[in-house]
């Protein structure tokens, strides 16, 4: 997962994407638009059989970027699993 100071929008024109926004997991099918607030940890993965056609929009020129040592998806993605809450709690217990 990663986060950044500026907001981000994704326009999915073709395909199927699995998203993690904070501790929420969801799947979208094209056509769809996802708005990601500034500072929101997020990740996404193409789970369709074809290449996804995704347009990413950064409406501001803010490029401060943080990569979190956390990947929210299982390798097989058959069952999506959110571990973000456990990750947040592990940080709080340090």
Describe this structure in words.
The protein is mainly beta and 94 residues long. It has a single domain (2-92), classed as Jelly Rolls (Sandwich), CATH 2.60.120. 10% of the residues lie in helices and 43% in strands. It has 1 helix and 8 strands; from the N terminus they run ββββββββα. It has one helix spanning 84-92, and strands spanning 2-4, 8-14, 16-21, 24-29, 32-36, 42-46, 53-57, 65-67. The strands form 3 sheets. A 3-stranded antiparallel sheet has the order 5-2-7, with no helix packed on it. It has a 3-stranded antiparallel sheet with strand order 4-3-6, with no helix packed on it. The protein has a two-stranded antiparallel sheet with strand order 1-8. A hairpin with a 2-residue loop joins strand 3 and strand 4. The chain is globular, with a radius of gyration of 14 Å. Mean pLDDT is 83; it is low at 77-81.
Topology:
Layout: E1 2-4, E2 8-14, E3 16-21, E4 24-29, E5 32-36, E6 42-46, E7 53-57, E8 65-67, H1 84-92
Antiparallel strand pairs: 1-8, 2-5, 2-7, 3-4, 3-6
Question: Which CATH top level class fits?
Answer: Mainly Beta
In the residues, how many domains can be counted?
1
- The assigned structural class equals mainly beta
Q: CATH superfamily assignment? A: Jelly Rolls
The percentage helix is: under 10%
């Amino acid at each position: 997962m990663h986060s950044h100071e500026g907001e981000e929008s994704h326009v999915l024109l073709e395909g199927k994407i699995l998203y993690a926004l904070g501790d929420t997991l969801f799947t979208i099918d094209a056509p769809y638009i996802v708005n990601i607030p500034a500072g929101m940890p997020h990740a996404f993965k193409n789970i369709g059989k074809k290449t996804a056609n995704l347009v990413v929009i950064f409406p501001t020129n803010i490029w401060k970027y943080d990569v979190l040592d956390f990947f929210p998806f299982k390798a097989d993605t058959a069952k999506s699993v959110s571990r973000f809450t456990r990750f947040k709690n592990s940080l709080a217990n340090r």
